[in-house]
Design goal:
The complex is a heterodimer. Chain A is built from five helices and nine strands; from the N terminus they run αββββαβαββαββα. By secondary structure, chain A is of the alpha+beta class. In chain A, strands 1-2-3-5-4 form a five-stranded mixed sheet. A four-stranded antiparallel sheet of chain A has the order 7-6-8-9, with helices on both faces. In chain A, α2 crosses α3. The model of chain A has no long low-confidence stretch (mean pLDDT 92). The two termini of chain B are 33 Å apart. Classes of the chains: A alpha+beta, B alpha+beta.
């Protein structure tokens, strides 16, 4: 694969006119669900995710209890009106996978060993979807867990990197995800801690190992920005429930 | 709570609070290399080189010595299982009850659904052990139980009990504040109890106001019938 020159990067036009390393406008807020022990909202442009945390509470049924450490249980759900074509409510193959992915992305930073026989429930709902929903979900869930007072080594920030034909771009939207020119689109959601450790990476498509390294570097840069917004959301929340 | 400096900073998990080898990590913090890092979301507090975090949100975390209010969940042959609104339920063993109990009829003393004020005297991997061997603890028969967020309990109690003392004096009620957020109010008249309830809820709702003690006194004088 021919490496892209500086000139062609500048020439590359994204459908919504963004720069290749520019995310959509991001906003984050904590404490959006008063009933929950912790909650947060996170959005990438039109993609909006809300997360609610309940617990730690006793795990039921009893045979699922783990006497060695606490359990994290995530539940990702896309609301039926989140996309133009109504989606059938309830669990699906896709949502089950993303629920598990969210757990795996967050587990490395959680310090829940002392909550034996207990479970922490994280409910992630996508209010509006325009690609990158799992990343918005992970970002919201990380914020909600922190807001619930769960001990964590660090926060987690997540962003999707895309390869449109041969060009790497940050934070895909729906139009870009369905890219058909040239080599088509490759979607790489990455979750990182602020010190640059990867907690989750997925790859849907084809990419050279050299370019994958570039993609991770790009994700690290973008996550710095996301972390800053997550941090501000927590700091400006006044702490009330 | 010490208040040598009122402008305490909100910290988030993973944030470096202070750097330097002389600091010690307290509750909610961890030492990483030469710096103290926060593990939870809350307010930082540094006193005599000890760094700790006061949580702002989340569920109640039981601690040894806490007075809590709970509900009897089950009666076993050796004691009572009590729900104190934590992930693990607590156990009140027979020997921690300072009166004669007929071992064949534990439910004559307390039965499922009864409310009890107790103290956490031990915590281990197996669970939480309670005791009612102190003054003011035991089964609650009358009065009013209200629930507030457990993170607001320190504010309701106030510095060395100053806040709750004002409410007690002005409403002529006896108030027991459980650290788990359940509060028992007992007064002579139901009107007094309801007034005390309003006062406690006022403090809980306005817990972030600066100079709350004065505000509470004003509020009590205004609303007193």
């Amino acid at each position: 694969m021919t490496p892209k020159t500086k000139k062609s990067e500048e020439e590359f036009k994204r459908p919504d006119g963004r720069k290749v390393d520019e995310t959509r406008p991001i906003s984050a807020k904590v404490g959006v669900i008063p009933n929950a022990d912790g909650s947060a909202m996170f959005s990438f442009g039109d993609t909006i995710a809300i997360a609610a945390v309940y617990g730690p509470k006793k795990m039921h049924p009893q045979h699922l209890q783990d006497p060695e450490k606490g359990t994290l249980r995530c539940n990702y759900n896309m609301l039926s009106f989140s996309v133009t074509e109504r989606i059938k409510p309830g669990p699906s193959r896709r949502s089950t996978e993303i629920s598990k992915i969210t757990e795996w992305a967050l587990e490395p930073v959680l310090m829940i060993d002392k909550y034996v026989n207990s479970v922490i429930d994280v409910h992630v709902h996508i209010l509006q979807a325009n690609a990158s929903t799992r990343c918005a979900g992970i970002n919201a869930a990380a914020l909600a867990l922190a807001h619930a007072g769960i001990p964590m080594k660090n926060l987690v920030s997540s962003v999707s990197i895309g390869k449109l034909d041969k060009q790497l771009v940050v934070d895909l939207n729906k139009k870009e995800e369905d890219w058909e020119e040239g080599e088509g689109a490759t979607d790489i959601p990455v979750s990182l801690t602020p010190d640059g450790k990867i907690t989750h990476i997925q790859l849907d498509g084809k990419i050279s190992s050299k370019q994958l390294k570039e993609a991770v570097a790009l994700a690290k840069e973008a996550c710095k920005e996301i972390y800053k917004i997550q941090k501000n959301a927590l700091k400006n929340s006044l702490g009330g429930k | 709570m010490t208040t040598e400096n009122t402008s305490r900073k909100i910290v988030i998990p993973g944030e470096v609070i202070v750097e330097g080898g002389e600091y010690l990590p307290g509750e909610g913090t961890e030492k990483r290399g030469n710096s103290i890092v926060s593990l939870i979301y809350g307010l930082e507090e540094i006193s005599n080189n000890l760094v700790k975090i006061i949580p702002l949100s989340g569920t109640y975390q039981p601690r040894r010595g806490n007075v809590v209010i709970g509900k009897v969940e089950n009666v076993t042959f050796s004691g009572w299982v009590i729900d104190i609104e934590t992930a693990e339920s607590a156990f009140l063993p027979l020997i921690e009850v300072p009166r004669y109990v007929n071992k064949d009829a534990l439910d004559e003393v307390m039965t499922v659904g009864d409310i009890v004020a107790a103290k956490i005297w031990n915590m281990n991997k197996r669970g939480i052990d309670l005791s009612i061997k102190s003054r003011g603890l035991g089964k609650i028969d009358d009065g009013l139980i209200i629930r507030i967020n457990s993170n607001k309990v320190p504010r309701v109690i106030g510095k060395e009990g100053s806040m709750i003392k004002i409410i007690k004096d002005k409403t002529n009620c006896n108030i027991t504040v459980g650290q788990n957020g359940l509060i028992w109010i007992k007064g002579e008249k139901i009107e007094d109890e309801l007034f005390a309830k309003e006062a406690v809820l006022f403090v809980a709702e306005n817990s972030f106001i600066f100079g709350l003690t004065e505000e509470l006194t004003k509020w009590l004088d205004k609303n007193k019938k």
